[in-house]
Amino acid sequence: MKKYKIVLLSGDGIGPEISDVSKKVLKELSKNHNFDIEIIEKLFGGIAYEKYGTPSPDETIDQCKKSDAVLLACVGDIKYDSLARELRPESGLLKLRSALNLFANIRPVKVRKSLLDASTLKKEIVEHVDLIVVRELIGGIYFGKPRGHITNTKIPKAFNTMVYDSAEIERITEIAIKIANQRNKKICSVDKSNVLEVSQLWRDTVLNITSKDKNISLSNIYVDNAAMQLVRDPGQFDVILTSNLFGDILSDLAAMLTGSIGMLPSASLNNNGPGVFEPVHGSAPDIAGKNIANPIAMLLSASMMLKIGLNEEEAAENLETAIDKVLSKGFRTADIADGSSEVLSCSEIGDKIMDEI
Ligand code: IPM
Ligand code: MN
Prior knowledge:
The chain has twelve helices and 14 strands. It folds into two domains: about 1-110 and about 265-355, 3-Layer(aba) Sandwich (Isopropylmalate Dehydrogenase), CATH 3.40.718; about 120-260, 3-Layer(aba) Sandwich (Isopropylmalate Dehydrogenase). Helices cover about 40% and strands about 20% of the residues. By secondary structure, the chain is of the alpha/beta class. The strands form three sheets. It has a ten-stranded mixed sheet, with helices on both faces. Bound molecules: 3-isopropylmalic acid and manganese (II) ion (MN). Manganese (II) ion binds near residues 248 and 252.
């Protein structure tokens, strides 16, 4: 029997609630699909800070490195906003991404038929949405140096550096090409090359690399236009390739096409070694502990983990079908409820999904 060792990081806010659902579902899938899954739980984020004084303890990172895959719920809480930057839960996340060299962040945005009415946009605009955001994850302005505060000026000043070298752009472009080749072979690269040098290098490098693959059709647009096109006609996109900051912003925007950010999974990958699979949403401290969160983004992340991280494609498909069945029967969590649906709690919708597995 195949045996996998995964690390589960429940993190903060709604994290433990949606993790509970994910654990049960993974165990059930392992029984049905004949594999063994060891789930090692580690502290990460604000909760790790409370216990160890750091959001990303070495022990947690080491355990992640030794695993087959990492499933992460979410981190963060406003109560940590006043901490020094390196102690904040978000910095822990950046450290994990960087320590595992997860340069490629894959965010599929697919509108599920049963949720067409949940979007704030018109049905006709969102019904054909099926795109993937490929976001560079360990470079750009998130990590660029120098960065910091300048204190010896009359008024407070702070700065960051948006920087890429061509090798970083090349490797993320290769990933986008690989993904596009499994889909409609269209890549739209998003930059701000009308203003930024770093974006000019981005555009030139992407063009250079993609031109070697004759199957790929490449378009380039500026990030402001990309934001507009994503709400005007999102169906035009297949693979969106972009840098760390632009990808962060555009993927939240794209998430809303599906009706709720509570529906969007992601995978952060390296060319080898374990990936981190996590929902795009945050820790929603305002609804934490109420058992009303939507566990589906985390379950879809678990499905990406099964498929990409563990090669358990059938189990992944089983899970996705189960989710679709539950949604098409009209069961919803509060964030995606419409007048005609039955609103369930986080654990209740988890149980419904278990029943369909
Ligand atoms: C995301 C999040 C993170 C990011 C934060 C929590 C650091 O918004 O995964 O999109 O900005 O990358
Ligand atoms: Mn984000």
